[in-house]
Amino acid sequence: MRVKTQLMDEDAMRRALIRIAHEIIERNHGTQDVVLIGIQRRGVPLAHRLQQNIEKVEGIKVPLGVLDITFYRDDLSLLSEHPVVNGTDISFALTGCHAVLVDDVLYTGRTARAAMDALMDIGRPATIQLAVLVDRGHRELPIRADYVGKNVPTSRSEMVGVQVTEFDGENSVLLFDTTDDLPE
Known about the structure:
Number of helices: 5
Number of strands: 8
CATH architecture: 3-Layer(aba) Sandwich
Number of domains: 1
Structural class: alpha/beta
CATH topology: Rossmann fold
Low-confidence stretches: none
Largest sheet: 5 strands, parallel
Radius of gyration: 16 Å
Mean pLDDT: 92
Strand content: 25-35%
């Protein structure tokens, strides 16, 4: 797998997350009953950044939770015999709130579906919204993001990789060519 191009650098990611924070505030008419839910793994640091951006604008720190969807995935049996579970931590009531699920990349829609299923097992939010840094297309389910940092048309032989300092030591979004990895 080789890097084809850099789609976003650190500044572009920062600007996109600031814009998304403003859009969340505007759509929800403020921050009343708004909660952010980061989807493990890279959705969590992105949710933290959105929380900080919203606090800078509104002066209010909205609640933030962490959601692990491992056991809600429809491809769990294909992942591993012993899947890695990172844990869910939602220490507030979801009922009646406006839950904003935060993830790095929207692709088929299966992760978002699994996250909605997991969230509904915890509580019943008034609304569930989806914020993603990158929407790369190729939906398999009728799911769309409410907030998108960048739309990137891709082929199925490409992969979008979001790098965050918390896991990767840098902030960037890369487009990879996976044709080298395909069997002949």
